[in-house]
Design brief:
The protein folds into 3 domains: 342 residues, no CATH class; 101 residues, no CATH class; 56 residues, no CATH class. It is 41% helix and 12% strand. It contains 20 helices and 16 strands. It has a 5-stranded antiparallel beta sheet with strand order 6-7-8-9-10. Strands 5-4-11 form a 3-stranded antiparallel beta sheet. Strands 1-2 form a two-stranded antiparallel ribbon. A hairpin with a 7-residue loop joins strand 14 and strand 15. Helix 2 runs parallel beside helix 7, helix 14 packs across helix 15 and helix 15 packs across helix 16. The longest helix is centred in the middle third of the chain and has 40 residues. The chain is flat, with a radius of gyration of 37 Å.
Length: 691
């Protein structure tokens, strides 16, 4: 029976781990071999008798060259995969205002989680794990002692006098002085995302869709003291991570080679997850350390029951099983041949590459008397042959060219070519041709990027579902959008309105050539499709465009900040020194965005009134400019404190600034004397004071 007390503890977890582990032996072995090859440990082999990875014994008389081509290729691939940051979209399931606002809030929450939980760093690790083992995963858990402090603490009573317990302060310290007053922060929990390699997880054997399996087991190697503190154990657990038939026992063969850093002692922690099913109605979660259940069994804690709490990413999916393959496994034999060829050439140079001189035996004593004087004569006996150099045997061309052929095969397997390394191919000089080659070179990477996008989309969906179910009190979120200042907002799970399905648009994270983007922006600029710097910076994706816009287009930067503030229902008052045309244009761009459409109607009306105020101030500036020009041409050239329009002196008609060319004022005009003084007539008052 599956649900008995005996079968629901450590024995069940151990049994099912062994069942699942036997089905992925090859994938785990390939992962550790690929890991070793990429990091330079390439003189190893698989012992077919013991089934373990072993280091090849070195011979001091033979040359063993490690010409690692897999490491630079891996760096190039990882740079392409993680070139652009992830962006999330939560599409509303309905058109009503509450649903639209919930979807917008969910996107903002994901932006905060993306930064706070360091998802970009995790994405790099996910790409590397999938590159080495063909399969990688991200597990989502809920930690009740994590997260941001709760901002709504109205239910707590802070009026009670704190009781000073004996021994709480240091000797000689006055109670209550030097220590922060007030209650300790209260946490409501937060999600925890864990990166897992193929060697750190097993799934129910026989399934093709691992995420829909009944159960799976997470395997972690942690320091013994950390395990003891986390699960409140009386004694420190043993360090059993590198002992027995575990994935870490294979890795320890080449991780600790006696000449590098010694691998620390680690303890294995097995976490068993089983979602609710017909054989286990409530599901269960069990944590096993040292063949003992230290936590659980507990019921399934997640709000979703149609899937397990992890998401997979692949390098090359395989349709017949839940694990994938990696091209690194295919390139590994070619790396062995490449090292062998380089070793053979180097050994030939070592043993037969030095030029030697043949001299008669009777001339040995004469050689000892030679000096380094140029042109020195060397006598040799009459009737004997003259000493001569012995040339080393020439290596055949096919021998010298063989490493290049092997390297070419490796490059084709790994998807790294001359264009990837920044080398221009022969007979191709146009930028358009190079952009086509770059696009074709990035095609194999696109499949891996797509798999990562799907994986993180599922992770984001699970995170939102947990937030909606677990977060009941208000908590802050820091949101930073491109071109916008960081925003702080309070939210709870109820505010999400059930909008938890998140996706990552593939086009937003596919690798792109910055040179091709800049060339495209220049063509659009020449065609007149781009008329401003901010449009050019957005299309070309110029680095540091925000700081450049702050300096070159300060009104555009200020208008964007106002957009962010007004979206949070914070009114902004236009200033008389604003460039109203630039502000109105930038506000209208925001009003045509999806984010504006999801704002409440009251906020939309407030933004409309803000734009109308800019319109009124712009009309006032124009009226003041016309009034000044009607009085005198001089007033049209004076800079205005409110940033109103003014004319350059060169733009005025000839002679308009001549003091003698002042138009005659009629006697019946009011203020005749003051206007004459303002025009610079002798005896007039100070023109600056008049203005």
């Amino acid at each position: 029976m599956a649900d008995t007390e005996t079968d629901s503890g450590a024995s069940l977890v151990k049994k099912r781990y062994e069942e699942g582990r036997r089905t992925i032996n090859r994938e785990v072995r390939d992962y550790w071999l690929n890991h070793a090859f990429i990091h330079g440990r390439q003189w190893i082999y698989l012992n077919r008798t013991t089934g373990t990875v072993q280091v090849l014994e070195t011979d001091p008389d033979r040359v063993q060259v490690t010409a690692n081509r897999m490491w630079p290729a891996t760096r190039t691939i990882m740079s392409k995969v993680t070139q652009r940051d992830m962006t999330f979209e939560v599409l509303p399931s309905a058109a009503d205002d509450a649903t639209v606002r919930g979807a917008a809030l969910a996107e903002s929450v994901l932006v905060d989680v993306h930064d706070a939980h360091k998802w970009e760093e995790m994405r790099e690790g996910l790409a590397m794990a999938a590159w080495k083992g063909g399969t990688a995963a991200i597990c989502v858990d809920w930690d009740p002692n994590a997260g941001s402090p709760i901002t709504d603490l109205s239910a707590l009573n802070f009026n009670e006098e704190p009781v000073e317990e004996p021994g709480e302060h240091e000797p000689g310290e006055t109670p209550g002085i030097g220590r922060e007053e007030g209650p300790e922060p209260v946490f409501e929990g937060d999600t925890v995302e864990t990166l897992l390699t193929i060697a750190e997880m097993v799934v129910e054997p026989g399934v093709k869709d691992a995420e829909k399996a009944r159960w799976w087991i997470k395997l972690q190697a942690l320091p013994p003291e950390q395990v003891q503190a986390q699960f409140n154990l009386k004694t420190k657990p043993p360090a059993d991570a590198a002992a027995g038939d575990t994935p870490y026992s294979q890795g320890s063969v080449f991780e600790n080679d006696g000449i590098g850093n010694q691998k620390p002692d680690l303890t294995l922690v097995f976490t068993y997850y089983e979602r609710p099913n017909a054989l286990c109605k409530k599901g269960r979660v069990i944590v096993v350390v040292d063949n003992k259940a230290v936590d659980g069994p507990k019921p399934w804690p997640f709000p979703f029951t149609d899937r397990l709490n992890f998401a997979l990413a692949f390098e090359t999916p395989v349709e017949s099983r839940w694990t994938g393959d990696s091209v690194v496994s295919m390139a590994r034999p070619m790396q062995v041949l490449y090292n062998l060829a380089q070793s053979s050439i180097t050994e030939h140079i070592k043993n037969a590459g030095n030029a030697r001189m043949a001299v008669p035996q009777s001339a040995i004593e004469l050689l000892e008397n030679l000096s380094d004087i140029p042109g020195e004569m060397f006598p040799y006996a009459d009737g004997m042959s003259m000493p001569s150099w012995l040339s080393p045997p020439a290596m055949p061309n096919w021998w010298l060219e063989q490493p290049d052929r092997i390297a070419m095969v490796m490059d084709d397997l790994l998807g790294v070519h001359d264009v990837s390394r920044g080398v221009t191919p022969s007979n191709i000089e146009s930028g358009y041709g190079l952009s086509i080659l770059t696009e074709n070179d990035n095609t194999p990477v696109g499949k891996m990027v797509k798999s990562q996008a799907i994986c993180f989309g599922k992770v984001a969906t699970m995170v939102l579902e947990l937030y909606q179910d677990m977060v009941t009190a208000k908590r802050p979120a820091i949101v930073s959008a491109p071109g916008q200042p960081p925003e702080s907002m309070d939210w709870s799970g109820q505010d999400l309105e059930g909008q938890t399905r998140a996706i990552i648009p593939i086009d937003t994270i596919l690798p792109r050539s910055r040179a091709a983007q800049a060339q495209q922006a220049e063509k659009m600029l020449q065609m007149g499709l781009i008329t401003s710097y901010e449009e050019y910076a957005a299309i070309a994706e110029l680095p540091g465009s925000r700081s450049m816009i702050d300096r070159l287009k300060p009104d555009v930067a200020k208008a964007r900040r106002e957009n962010a503030q007004m979206a949070l229902n914070a009114p902004c008052v236009p200033a008389d020194f604003d460039d109203h045309a630039a502000h109105i244009a930038e506000h209208n761009v925001f009003r045509k965005s999806v984010k504006f459409e999801r704002l409440p109607e009251m906020v939309q009306q407030m933004i409309g009134l803000h734009i109308q105020a800019h319109n009124v101030l712009a009309a006032e500036q124009m009226g003041n400019a016309h009034a000044g020009a009607a009085i005198s041409s001089v007033l049209a050239t004076v800079p205005r404190a409110d940033g109103g329009p003014s004319l350059a002196a060169a733009a005025l008609p000839p002679g308009s600034l001549d003091p003698l060319a002042v138009p005659q004022l009629t006697e019946d005009l009011p203020g005749n004397d003051q206007l004459a003084q303002a025009e610079g007539i002798p005896g007039a008052a100070d023109p600056a004071a008049m203005m």
